[in-house]
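Justification of resources, computational component.

The compute hours requested in this renewal are based largely on the per-chain cost of generating structure records like the one below. Each record pairs the submitted sequence with a full structure-token output. That output is archived, and it is also reused by downstream analysis tasks.
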Amino acid sequence: MSDPATHHIYLIPGLFGFAKLAGYDYFVHMEEALAERFADAGIPLRMDVIPTPPTASIPLRAVVVARHVSRTVGEGHGPIHLLGHSTGGLDSRLLLSAGQHLPLPDEELAWTRRVRSLTTVSCPHYGTPLAGYFTTVAGTRLLYALSLLTVTSLTLGKLPLTAFSGLVAAIGAIDEALGVDIHLIDQLTDRILAVVGERGRGEIHDYLEHVHDDRGGIIQLMPEVMELFDAAVDDNPAVRYGCVASAAPPPRPRRLLGVVTNPLSALGLAVYTTVYGVTSRADARYPYAAPDEQQERMLSLGFGRSIRPETVDGIVPTLSMLHRELLWCGDADHLDVVGHFEDGGLPRAHVDWLASGARFNRRDFGVMIDAISRFMLRD
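The structure output for this chain reads:
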């Protein structure tokens, strides 16, 4: 039993996210960093990662979140903090809205009265053009590639590189305008599943099946659909809302592919090149946030350059991430901010998912976590 005043942090992954998969924890670096900050402040803390369906609809994911918290939070009056990465932030916003009509009894929502803060990290509050692209034939192929990259990049260090022999040249030949070849993905899938072990193979297979069977959440992230979400979902006045915003540099595939020797890094670069190009196509009919004074000041300090509708972190437009108080912003891709970035093989090494070239590092990650923890602990 936890102390009745114990703080509870629930971490909610975004699309393609998971709690644990093939021996890797999605939020492992965030968990460790937040635990350290709360310990330094002398605040008792419990943390939990909620295993939401990777690409299901926002309402379905929100129901999963509500039931998980209701089942695990226990008695007491300790504050609850929600932290949602990407779509995980939208799941949380829907749950906390007074106007939501989810198929949940009151007792499974009683815990929402204890929520003190919601932190959204690189969350598409105004949608992302990438969602619409994922509904096309080419986009479906890319969706599968991104799913595969998600579940394999994290375990590369545990896999023999011979599993990828013969694939480097093929990946390097991918046309930057076309995207990713589905036959290449099939080959890579077969080779990876052959060496991850029975348990890991089953987990990865189940994950990809979830992506194949339910992609409702992807359609809902289109900017024209998110316009309806924002019109219907209101903020809870008893909860503090904070956000983190990121932006990554445009890809330069022809130059970078010549120096990439890791096949998964090459696949990541090919995927990043395609998703960046699609995500940066802003539609003036469905504008993103107009920064307020506080946000404008923070954006200027954090980036040192003008942030335009075309500025993106590879997956989500930067201006789409703004919602209420801006806690931190800086150069990072969509997955760097969760702790998945290259750090030169230091102890408890961080693993990079996408070859964005954002140069986000441990110091940046620490500054971001400091801002998030201060926000959660604010009186």
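The longest strand covers residues 240-247. Residues 137-153 form the longest helix (17 residues).
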